[in-house]
Amino acid sequence: KQPMMLALNPSHRYGIGLLVIREKFAVCLTDLCGKLLDSIEVRPAPDSLQKALACILYIVEELVGRNTIPLKSVAGIGIGVPGPVDHYLGKLLTPPNFDFLHNAPLSAILSEELGVPAFLENDVVAYGLLEYAMSDIKAYKKILALYVSDYVGGVVLENGRVARGANGSAGEFGHMSVNPDGPKCSCGNRGCLEMY
Prior knowledge:
With 196 residues, the chain is an alpha+beta fold. It is 20% helix and 29% strand.
């Protein structure tokens, strides 16, 4: 029997990626194969939970609307947020300088409002998983990925799986104290790596 080559129909389903960080909200639309189709960015980010939810719903609906894609064709929404997060419950915990989103169950709210499954993850963990999926680093069993910008984050991958640690905060390197007598951080700790 001759082998038959199969391929995914990229327009059968779509994915939405949402980045919710202090300085901006960004949303992107991809096809089933991960090809970027469109994106929208909002700066500055809203400053209350009510405004944030209204903004997110608006930009998601704007994005699918201008691409004439019905929401029922969206397989899911991936939400990247600053840590710490409880990815099992789909909520932010207590990210510094983002008080209005403390303990907000974003994935449940968006899933209910849009009728689409929504999944929340630490933004740096999402970056690490994307890098793992799209690059040649799969040959390594243990990977530490660091993100350094106006904040510091990290992810530890073991055989392609996120090592979360006992309380789910493995990789939160930015808020590890490197100087107990150092300046007070917005997280309440002193001498966090992110302060230097």
